[in-house]
DNA sequence: AGTGAGGCTAAGCGCTTGCTCACCGGCATG
DNA sequence: CATGCCGGTGAGCAAGCGCTTAGCCTCACT
């Protein structure tokens, strides 16, 4: 029942379609364990225990502990990338699209800061080929933000000297939310998203 | 000689007065190992090996592996806090002081990104009492930035709706430099510091 | 020359780790 | 009712972990 409580409490929609049920329980257990203690400090017994199973059960659904991290990382990055590319290709002025990208990205990182922490800070533990795949997705995220900033500069809406550097900074600012955000703290995910959208617009020199 | 090469290559001035020599060599070896692989994935054999010593030698100079991390963390936080409090108490307009704080803080995080990575991302591995001490220093860092922003608002130089949130965002932006900065990348620490000082001024709505 | 302290090592202890394997119950199917 | 399979367990293996201990070498000081 401990495991079930954890399961309903902290499971974002991202894991909805992980099947079978036991695999999903293991995945969300791993997310929480990795986020709390880090990948290397988490034991397979800890993960299995949180999911209410014996250690051996983990290996029925995942080849290794690293594969669990890889799956989590992949789903998380897919989610983040969809947000950013959606904003890049969406309708509206560059300012509207940048604000939308930042708002949604930050909201996700705050709301699902447990998952986001694993996704953003445990990359070093991935196997080489998995790391390469994830790195490609991260570069795409970078590119999506840069594209929006470039659009704004071309349209004359933004005033940016160093497009690449500023785009990196905006994305970096958003990512770091996963590190410091505290659900019991002063601000809600919505509030942080709103604040950060405004800050991003200022960073690119959008008229305001 | 491998260890000696490492020693001269990546040792920031911060460790200058760690004595005796063997203790310093162990410390810089630990910094590099922790930064590359993370605290939990680093073995005492790895640290000692990088310092050109046997595993047992570590325990002559440090009680535990965690104490090494604690010392690194303390020195690093002291350094960062000095920068920020120096800027807070320094001369000049709030805008000048904020720009100076960001420039110096970012420069340090880029130049010594190995150390900074350990300092910023391995806090979770600290023992309870050590973690409490470090947390206090981090709160002081937060306060120093907030004080500068408050000064600017009071002087009418800054235009900030959410002082606390904006101060957190500025500091967060700077900290995250340690995560992504690559010495072989496009920008030098000086360039990033300059860019970020400008971005911070925009974030607080300083007249530009 | 003799001595004691400090810095260091080789060996290894006790324990935990990721992972495996022989086995088992329930259940859909012939 | 027999059968095969899917999802699970209990026990445990080999390896590696943090850390300790007994003892050695060096060298300042007498």
Automatic annotation (TrEMBL), chains A, B:
Gene3D superfamilies: Tetracycline Repressor, domain 2. Keywords: DNA-binding. GO terms for molecular function: DNA-binding transcription factor activity; transcription cis-regulatory region binding. Residues 43-62 bind DNA. Residues 20-80 form the HTH tetR-type domain. PANTHER family: HTH-TYPE TRANSCRIPTIONAL REGULATOR RUTR, HTH-TYPE TRANSCRIPTIONAL REPRESSOR BDCR. This is Putative transcriptional regulator. It comes from Streptomyces bingchenggensis (strain BCW-1).
């Amino acid at each position: 029942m401990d495991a079930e409580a954890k399961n309903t409490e902290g499971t974002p929609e991202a894991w909805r379609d992980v099947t079978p049920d036991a695999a999903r329980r293991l995945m969300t257990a791993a997310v929480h364990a990795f986020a709390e203690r880090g990948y290397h400090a988490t034991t397979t017994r800890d993960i299995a225990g949180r999911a209410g199973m014996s250690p051996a059960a983990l290996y029925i659904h995942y080849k290794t502990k690293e594969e669990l991290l890889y799956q989590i990382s992949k789903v998380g990055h897919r989610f983040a990338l969809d947000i950013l590319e959606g904003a890049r290709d969406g309708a509206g002025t560059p300012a509207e699209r940048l604000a939308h990208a930042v708002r949604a990205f930050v909201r996700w990182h705050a709301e699902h800061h447990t998952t986001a922490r694993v996704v953003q800070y445990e990359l070093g533990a991935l196997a080489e080929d998995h790391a390469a795949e994830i790195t490609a997705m991260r570069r795409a995220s970078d590119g999506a933000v840069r594209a929006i900033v470039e659009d704004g500069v071309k349209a004359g809406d933004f005033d940016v000297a160093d497009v690449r550097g500023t785009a990196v900074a905006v994305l970096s600012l958003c990512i770091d939310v996963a590190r410091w955000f505290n659900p019991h703290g002063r601000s809600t995910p919505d509030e942080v998203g709103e604040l950060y959208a405004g800050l991003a617009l200022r960073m690119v020199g959008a008229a305001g």
